[in-house]
Design goal:
mainly alpha, Arc Repressor Mutant, subunit A, two-stranded antiparallel ribbon, 4 helices, 2 strands, about 40% helix, about 5% strand, elongated, binds FE2/S2 (inorganic) cluster
């Protein structure tokens, strides 16, 4: 019988579907929980490729249908002197 090939969900960190399933079975209920257990989403693409797949696996395995966003949108840059002066503009 042929050996089963692993299915990589996070290619950057080489995290397999089984590792993600085990993380969820161990109690992971968020992307961060899976990340802490497997290091998925910590690779070169920072989760752009694997995040949606992991979210889908979490939704399928749990009752959670909508996950809290794990990333924040970028904010505008400010100069250090604005911080020092306390300018809000
Ligand atoms: S595929 Fe998971 S971090 Fe790039």
């Amino acid at each position: 019988m042929a050996e089963k090939k692993p299915v990589y969900i996070c290619r950057c960190q080489e995290v397999t579907r089984e590792e993600i399933r085990k993380a969820i079975a161990d109690g992971a209920r968020t992307i961060k929980g899976v990340k802490n257990r497997t290091h998925a989403t910590m690779g070169l693409c920072q989760g752009r490729t694997c995040r949606r797949l992991i979210e889908k696996m979490l939704a399928e395995a749990t009752d959670i249908k909508e996950l809290k966003p794990g990333t924040r949108p970028p904010v505008r840059t400010i100069k250090i002197e604005e911080v020092v002066k306390g300018d809000d503009a």
